[in-house]
Structure formats: C-alpha cells, structure tokens
C-alpha cells in the first residue's frame, strides 16, 4: 500500500501541509512502513486536499476534503483491510467519478499521479523516452513531420501550428538561437500552466529539449510568473535532476546535442504574455511589445532567431512523439486536433483543471464535467479567454470547443480560463471588470490601447453608476472598432472583446442600466438599495451588529431600519439575516 | 538642478529618507555584473533584501551596473511586483481575479480595509500589515482568496477574512509582549 497526497498550490492552500503532518505522525506512531509521497494536482480542486491510497493490487482510491484526523482514519481502515472508507471517497480506479470520466489526458497525463520532485517517477511513467527516441532515431525534419501530422496548435491561445513555428526558426541561419517557454500566465482566472509546472515539470522540460534539438538552440529560457513560487521551485529541482541524469546539459544522451535551461522570473505585467513584450522583459527592459515583422523566429531574444511556445504546448510534445502524430490527430475535430486544458472556475460546482478532447460542447464541460452551477442556480454565461475573450450565453452552450466555432461566437479559445457565472452576475459589470483590468495592464505604447481602453472604461463605469446616456452603447462599439483595428499588439486588439460580446448577447442588461437605471442582476451598487421588511424583521439586531458602517438602527421589539445615505451596499445585512426571518431584500 | 540623472551628487543626502545599508546588495550586484539583461533579476533580489526598492538603492544599482537611472526607475515602476515603499511584516494580497470577483472579492476588500483601518496600497501605522491586491493568484477554485506572506487562504467570507487578520495580530501582540518581558 502506498499513499499520495495532492500538494499543488491549491492543495496546500486547502490545508495539505496539516494532512502531511498527520500522515507522518500516524506512520511513526503505528510503526507502519508505508511509502507516502507528495504529488501535484489531479484537477479536482473542489475536493482538495486529496489523498490517494494505492493498494498493492494497483487499485487507487481517492479521498477528498481530507484533514489530518481523516487521513489517519483512512490509513487505519485500509491497513485493516476494511477499505475503502466510503464517506470521504470521491473516486476510485474501479469507479472513476464523472469529473474524471469525461476527460482525456495528454498534457496532464502525469498530473496528480507522480511525485513532481522525483525524476525517477517521471521516467518510470515513460518520461524522457520521447527525447531518447528523437535523439537516437529522428532527424529534425522527422519531428516536424510528426508534429504536422498531429495538428498540434499553440495552446497559449491563438492555436497557430506548432510545426510551422519550429520550422521557421529551424530554417534560420546563425549559430545562436534561443528557445523560450512562455509561463507568464497572466489571465485572471487561469491556472493551467501553474498546475502543470507544479505537477509535472519534467514533461515541459522534455518538450523543450525536443524543440531545442529541432530548431538548433542550445539555450532555453522559461519565463515564469514570480507569483508562482512553487512552480519555480519545482522547475529548479527538475532542471537540476535532468542535468544530473544527462537529459539536459552537455552531450545529451551521447548525441552531441547541448542544452541548458534557465528560469527568468516575470515581475507582474499581463502584456508580457505577448511574445515581443516577453522578449523585451527577458532583456531587462520594460515589457513593451513591438511591431511584427520581424517575427521572433527571425529576430527575437538578443535579435537572434527565437522560438516561443506555451507551457501546455511543450507538455503535449513528448506524448505526440511516443504515441505518434496520428494518435493525437485522431482526438478532436477536423480543424482542431487533440485536447485542450481548461481551468474551470466561478459559480461552478466542481471547479478545477480539466483536459477534454476538442469538439466537446461547452454544455458538456460545464454540466457533465463541472457538475453544473453552484447551489443549483440559473446558468447565465461562460467567459472564455479572460480579458481577451468574451461571454457566451446559454443559447450557444452547444457550441463545440474548437478554434473556429469559439471564434464565431466573438470569444476566443484563449489559454484556457473558463469562468462560469450565474444570474447574480451583472454582465455590464463583468465587461467593466475586464476593461478595468486591460486598461491598467496596457503598457501605454500605442494611443488606441492606452487612451481607448480608458475611454471605454469611463463609459462602462458611468453605465454601472446609473449615469449611462443614450448612445453609450454605440459609443462603446465605435471605440471598440477603432481599438481593434489599430492597437499595436494582441492585448489592445482583443481588449474590447468582453464588451462587444456582452453587448451582443446581453443587450437587455445594458438597456436596463441606461434607460431604467436598474441592474437586473442586482449587483451594481449605485443601482440597488437594501431594505428591511418591517413585518418580517424580528429585531434580533444581528444586521446592525455586523454592518461595517453602522448604518442600521433599531431597538428591541422594533423593526430595524437601514439609513440609506450611509449604506455602502456591501450586502452584509442580507447575508447575516437569519434565513428563518429573511427580512432583508435588495431592490 | 534636481535632476537625478546628474552625476556626482550626494545621493545619500537627497534620498535621506531611505536609511538603507547599500552594502547589503553588493552580493547581488556582483552576481549579475556584466550579465546583460539582468536588471529585472537585480531588482527582484534587491526587493527580497529590503522588502521594497529604496530610491537610493535604485540610484546605486544604476551607477554600479552602468545603466541609466531613468531605465532602472522605468523598469521599477512598470512591473506590479516592485514597490517603492516599505511593506509591513505581513503582506496581504487580496486576489482580484475573475473567479474571485464573481464570488464577492469586493466585499472582502471592504471588510479588510475596515478591519485594518487602511485603504489598499497602504501599510498600518504599526508596520504590521500592508494591504494590497493581486491581479490573480491562480487559486481560482478556492475563490475568493487572499494570500498573506505567500500562504493562500480561501474560500473566504468577510468574517473569516477578519478573523484571520485578528489571529495574526493577536499572535504578533503576544510575541511582542513576550519579547518585552525578556
């Protein structure tokens, strides 16, 4: 019997360190000689902390919401041969739950299964076989052909054919070329790259080594967000281990091919996800994009030919080499091959990291994999692609997830952030939220983005504050068209998408805000009032006690009253009013 | 005549509010001296030493590495990770990501500002807490989330967030009193 504890950032945030101590304590006290190891994230973040028990016959039992005491109980039960302990069981290899069943794992194949800090476990799971195969039996052209067959597209968002990029850099002359891994995952609401790097860093390194061999680079750089300390730590460990075993460094596997990989930490700028801005940042400059061409494949890092791919793209490569491009192409649709990883979050029952075959419908991801909406409320929209993406409404939920179909809705596939919202979310506020983000993150280089997004934000703010004017929607559309057409880089080009999609699909909400000064979702502070029903109020006084600005007054046996001028609309009174009274409501 | 680009001025006098020991970053400067494109790494490691980027240190980095002061200041103000003001012992980062936003992060902001009696971006008078926000901490399934000195907490309610702050504060107080007693 073996134990495996999920120790990605989300597991640790949910209390995995306490569980780890509990397991150690139990093993010491009972004298049990069990192997216990940390693992990364299997994706079921909604059940964290997660503990796997692997029986000697190989069957795996996964327990969720484990604490130190429960972990001890689970270990004892299994050891006594009385397992599994049904109360906390969330999945088992005999009966995988719905969340895992609907998935197809390529990039995430090892996540939550191996110890990310052990190269031996990666190798035991078939790791570095692809690199071996490439170095011993394949030419660079063979690899490019295999990638062409696979149809792999860049997983950072655009889906541009990976083989084409590699080939372009490969065909450049010059002795010094660079390979860059883009791990600057700046989309709010996206955590695919973090999870992958924390759970299976070697698969990314192996993909990078194959890419470096094909394009002829001897230096690789991983540009990773400083906000991901655990991912950086595990990458550092992985690089050191790979160097020691000869998978990185000089004369790799006796092939004469050299590669060193180092990590550069990003310093928090969303625009650095854009490749030319990323290169500027790598060179120690402010991360500002420049015009293309020349493309990085011609003039990139230090003006040398440079190939940049996303974390998930690299993680797919070893699988494609091992299983063949045709096997990857067999998954997905005619135009979009393979799988895509999504970070499922927001008002969803089972949030987490999922990898699904391309072509699956949004409805299946949200309702089958994700289990539907939290508290069984009404689905309203799903936001894809973060600040560059858009909101897709209920009636388009059967849209298949492929690059073309998603683009046709006005959203984008993006890097994989998928935020589900319910009826309590105001779509005008959602658009305002994203514009606020892009406006802050605009690097300021081009006028359209710097000033255009600011003007759009001002219009959206006044609509949310109840000062919207007739013609505001048309004004937003005009500004959006200008910015889209003229901004210098992808950040500006796509910044209006959240506004345009909400205008298209939720026009009624804009109308209500502007004409009736009403927020149908009852979320925009300036357009709502909290009131206490004097009949329902039982004068318990909890609301007055909890009100952060002390604007609720009342006495025993007298209904309490909210002083509207002082109220900051935080909603605390609504939340704390006992459900048996339900005296507070929003108008 | 106060332009900071002028050479040979008495910087310690000009930036006298920064009472920092510049020798603390000698190691960092030596490590990266001569390595092109390392400015951001230098700034990151300098911030790790002082907790922020003192103006005097920025000026010193520029002189030592032969980079224009304007460029150093430019990079230090472009990236959100860098701070030009000292931070408290506990740095609270409230996540403003999409998942946290739709799950009520704004109400946490109100509660935290009220509990700490400071606005976001500020540090408490006793130097214990700095309250700031982050674009996204990447723990979306625990939304709404905050991070205190690298440790993530979630999912939070305004009350549970207040309690976390109060617990830390109580611990700090107890430590201080114990320190005084000794």
What key phrases describe this protein's structure?
heterodimer, A: 587 residues, alpha/beta, Glutaredoxin, Rossmann fold, Ubiquitin-like (UB roll), 5-stranded mixed sheet, 24 helices, 40% helix, B: 182 residues, alpha+beta, 4-stranded mixed sheet, 4 strands, globular
What would you note in describing this structure?
The complex is a heterodimer of chains A (587) and B (182). Chain A is of the alpha/beta class. Chain A has five domains: 2-96, Glutaredoxin (3-Layer(aba) Sandwich), CATH 3.40.30; 119-327, 3-Layer(aba) Sandwich (Rossmann fold), CATH 3.40.50.11540; 339-422, Ubiquitin-like (UB roll), CATH 3.10.20.600; 427-515, Up-down Bundle (de novo design (two linked rop proteins)); 529-586, Alpha-Beta Plaits. In chain A, 40% of the residues lie in helices and 15% in strands. In chain A, strand 16 (552-553) and strand 17 (561-562) form a beta hairpin. Chain A is globular and about 85 Å long. The termini of chain A are far apart. The mean pLDDT of chain A is 95. By secondary structure, chain B is α+β, with helices and mostly antiparallel strands. Chain B folds into two domains: 11-78; 90-181, Glutaredoxin. A four-stranded mixed sheet of chain B has the order 2-1-3-4, with helices on one face. In chain B, a hairpin with a 2-residue loop joins strand 3 and strand 4. The model of chain B has no long low-confidence stretch (mean pLDDT 90). The chains are: A alpha/beta (587), B alpha+beta (182).
What count of helical segments of chain B does DSSP give?
8
Helix % of chain A is: 25-40%
Following the backbone from N to C, one meets helices and strands of chain B in this order, namely: HHHHHEHHEEEH
Which consecutive residue ranges of chain A, at least 5 long each, have pLDDT under 50?
none
The CATH class of the largest domain in chain A? Alpha Beta
* Major sheet strand order of chain B: 2-1-3-4
The domain tally of chain B reads 2
Count of strand segments of chain A:
18
Largest inter-chain contact set: A-B, 61 and 46 residues
**Secondary-structure class of chain A:** alpha/beta
Number of helices of chain A: 24
Tell me which oligomeric state these chains represent. Answer: heterodimer
Distance between the termini of chain B: 51 Å
Distance between the termini of chain A: 58 Å
On the 0 to 100 scale, the average pLDDT of chain A is: 95
CATH architecture of the largest domain in chain B: 3-Layer(aba) Sandwich
The CATH topology of the largest domain in chain A is Rossmann fold
Output the CATH homologous superfamily of the largest domain in chain B: Glutaredoxin
What is the highest CATH level, the class of the largest domain in chain B? Alpha Beta
CATH superfamily of the largest domain in chain A: NADH-ubiquinone oxidoreductase 51kDa subunit
Q: What's the CATH topology label of the largest domain in chain B? A: Glutaredoxin
């Amino acid at each position: 019997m073996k134990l495996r504890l999920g120790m990605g950032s989300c597991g640790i945030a949910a209390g995995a360190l306490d569980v780890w101590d509990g397991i150690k304590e139990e093993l010491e006290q009972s004298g049990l000689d069990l192997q216990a190891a940390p693992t990364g994230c299997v994706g079921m973040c909604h059940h964290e902390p997660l503990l796997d028990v692997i029986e000697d016959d190989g069957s795996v039992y996964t327990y969720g919401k484990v604490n130190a005491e429960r972990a001890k109980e689970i270990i004892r039960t299994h050891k006594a041969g009385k397992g599994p302990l049904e109360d906390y069981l969330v999945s088992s290899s005999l009966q995988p739950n719905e969340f895992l069943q609907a998935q197809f794992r390529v990039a995430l194949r090892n996540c939550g299964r191996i110890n990310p800090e052990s190269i031996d476990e990666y190798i035991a799971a078939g790791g570095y076989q692809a690199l071996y195969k490439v170095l011993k039996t394949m030419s660079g052209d063979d690899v490019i052909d295999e990638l062409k067959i696979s149809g792999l597209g860049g997983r950072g968002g655009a889906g541009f054919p990976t083989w084409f990029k590699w080939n372009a850099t490969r065909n450049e002359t010059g002795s010094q070329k660079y390979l860059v891994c883009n791990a600057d995952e700046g989309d709010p609401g996206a955590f695919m790259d973090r999870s992958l790097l924390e759970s299976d860093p070697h698969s990314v390194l192996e993909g990078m080594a194959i890419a470096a061999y094909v394009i002829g680079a001897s230096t690789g750089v991983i540009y990773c967000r400083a906000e991901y300390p655990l991912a950086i730590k595990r990458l550092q460990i992985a690089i050191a281990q790979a160097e020691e075993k000869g998978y990185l460094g000089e004369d790799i596997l006796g092939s004469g091919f050299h590669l060193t990989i180092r990590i550069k930490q990003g310093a928090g700028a969303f625009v650095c996800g854009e490749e030319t801005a990323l290169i500027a940042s790598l060179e120690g400059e402010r991360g500002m994009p420049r015009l293309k061409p020349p493309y990085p494949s011609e003039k990139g890092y230090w003006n040398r030919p440079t190939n940049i791919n996303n974390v998930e793209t690299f993680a797919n490569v070893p699988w494609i080499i091992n299983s063949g491009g045709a096997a990857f192409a067999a998954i997905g649709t005619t135009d979009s091959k393979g799988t895509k990883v999504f970070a499922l979050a927001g008002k969803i029952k089972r949030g987490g990291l999922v990898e699904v075959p391309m072509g699956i419908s949004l409805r299946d991801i949200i309702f089958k994999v994700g289990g539907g909406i939290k508290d069984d409320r009404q689905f309203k929209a799903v936001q894809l692609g973060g600040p560059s993406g858009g909101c897709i409404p209920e009636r388009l939920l059967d849209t298949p997830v492929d690059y073309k179909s998603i683009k046709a809705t006005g959203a984008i596939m993006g890097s994989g952030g998928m935020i589900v919202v319910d009826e309590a979310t105001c779509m005008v506020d959602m658009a305002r939220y994203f514009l606020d983000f892009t406006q802050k993150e605009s690097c300021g280089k081009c006028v359209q983005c710097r000033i255009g997004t600011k003007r759009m934000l001002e219009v959206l703010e006044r609509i949310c504050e109840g000062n919207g004017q007739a013609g505001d929607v048309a004004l937003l559309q005009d500004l959006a068209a200008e910015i889209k057409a003229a901004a210098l880089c992808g950040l500006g080009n796509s910044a209006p998408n959240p506004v345009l999609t909400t205008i298209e699909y939720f026009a009624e909400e804009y109308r209500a805000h502007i004409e009736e000064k009403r927020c149908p979702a009852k979320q925009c502070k300036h357009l709502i009032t909290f009131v206490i029903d004097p009949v329902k109020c039982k004068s318990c006084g909890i609301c007055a006690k909890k009100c952060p600005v002390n604007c609720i007054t009342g006495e025993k046996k007298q209904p309490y009253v909210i002083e509207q001028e002082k109220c900051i609309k935080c909603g605390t009174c609504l939340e704390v009013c006992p459900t048996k009274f339900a005296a507070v409501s929003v108008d | 005549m106060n332009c900071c680009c002028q050479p040979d001025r008495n910087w310690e006098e000009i930036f006298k509010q920064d009472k920092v020991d510049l020798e603390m970053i000698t190691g960092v400067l030596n490590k990266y001296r001569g390595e092109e494109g390392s400015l951001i790494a230098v700034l990151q490691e300098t911030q790790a030493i002082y907790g922020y980027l003192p103006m005097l240190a920025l000026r010193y980095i520029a002189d030592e590495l032969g980079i224009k002061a304007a460029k150093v200041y430019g990079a230090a103000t472009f990236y959100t990770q860098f701070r030009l003001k000292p931070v408290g012992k506990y740095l609270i980062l409230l996540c403003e990501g999409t998942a946290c936003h739709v799950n009520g992060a704004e109400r946490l902001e109100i509660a935290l500002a009220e509990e700490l009696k400071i606005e976001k971006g500020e540090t408490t008078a006793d130097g214990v807490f700095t309250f700031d926000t982050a674009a996204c901490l990447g723990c979306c399934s625990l939304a709404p989330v905050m991070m205190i000195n690298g440790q993530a907490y979630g999912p939070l309610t305004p009350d549970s967030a207040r309690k976390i702050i109060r617990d830390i504060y109580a611990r700090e107080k107890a430590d201080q009193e114990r320190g005084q007693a000794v």
